Amino acid sequence: MRLAGKVIGITGGGTGIGRACALAYAAEGARVAVTDVDGASAEAVAAEIRAAGGEAAAWPLDVTDRAAIPGVVDAIVARFGTLDVWHNNAGVSTMGRFVELAERDWDVNMDVNAKGVFNCSQVVARYLIARGGGGKIIVTASMAGKKGDVAFLPHYVASKFAAVGLTQAMAAELGPHGITVNSICPGYVRTSMQDREAVWEGELRGMSADEVRRLYVDDTPLGRLETAEDVARVAVFLASSDADFITGAAIDVNGGAWMG
Ligand SMILES: NC(=O)c1ccc[n+]([C@@H]2O[C@H](COP(=O)([O-])OP(=O)(O)OC[C@H]3O[C@@H](n4cnc5c(N)ncnc54)[C@H](O)[C@@H]3O)[C@@H](O)[C@H]2O)c1
């Protein structure tokens, strides 16, 4: 049990990569605070963990709601006695050509994927510094946080480059407090986000969603779509003491779809 005794909070934990990470953390012995803007999905994941014999509780949390975050972090600490690891996983995407993007697409992607990481990490970092003893912050960034030539996602690319940059800046400033900060950069992960993107991209390219998924597989040397569990195994490593001397990293978990 690599995470026994640890308390881990995660955003966007109600489905997809966040759900897989929450379940994996619990399976390794962590007590998990599952949060999501969709509070019912967070509660369902917490119930799934409890049904499997683990310990978890859920809170509704919109990472763009700065004012709500301190109350949720306080409630997690009150419930579990402490907080050791915070995983900024919540994310959104929309798709379009750069010349056709609406300001709203830019704002929504930046607000959740970039500012949401700032909003939550700042509150958690203040808590961890005051508590002492270090801690860990993890960010689900993306292959699109290192590679700009991703079709139809210029605003998403900008938000994920911001998340990777913020990871490094936080790692530098929080390192002296024993707090590590690392990003995970997944590739083409089969989740509800990908289901939406495959339809949008198919419309933009004039092909079916299945044909778009075939492009994703062809772009991946390991020859299949990534699973949420592929990401979760690396998240467990980053949350564990095995990763104590890693900070400021943005770890590729993409089947070779991008090698930087
Ligand atoms: N699916 C992929 O191919 C892929 C690849 C690289 C990175 N990512 C990133 O992984 C993360 C998880 O994505 P996923 O594929 O599981 O997507 P998903 O859409 O299946 O799940 C995202 C979760 O985030 C929640 N969420 C959305 N807005 C929120 C907000 N404002 N506050 C709190 N929660 C919010 C949603 O309710 C949902 O539960 C995202 O940051 C995404 O950008 C996904």
Description:
- The chain has 260 residues and is of the alpha/beta class.
- The chain folds into 2 domains: 7-187 and 226-253, Rossmann fold; 191-225, no CATH class.
- The protein contains 8 helices and 7 strands; from the N terminus they run βαβαβαβαβαβαααβ.
- The protein has helices at 16-27, 39-51, 69-80, 103-131, 154-174, 192-205, 209-218, 228-239, and strands at 7-10, 31-36, 55-60, 85-88, 135-140, 179-186, 250-253.
- A 7-stranded parallel beta sheet has the order 3-2-1-4-5-6-7, sandwiched between helices.
- Helix 1 (16-27) crosses helix 8 (228-239).
- Bound molecules: nicotinamide-adenine-dinucleotide.
Q: Based on Cα principal axes, name the global outline.
A: globular
Q: End-to-end distance, in Å?
A: 32 Å
Helix percentage: 40-55%
Uncertain residue segments: none
Features:
binds nicotinamide-adenine-dinucleotide; 2 domains; 7-stranded parallel β-sheet; 8 helices; alpha/beta; globular
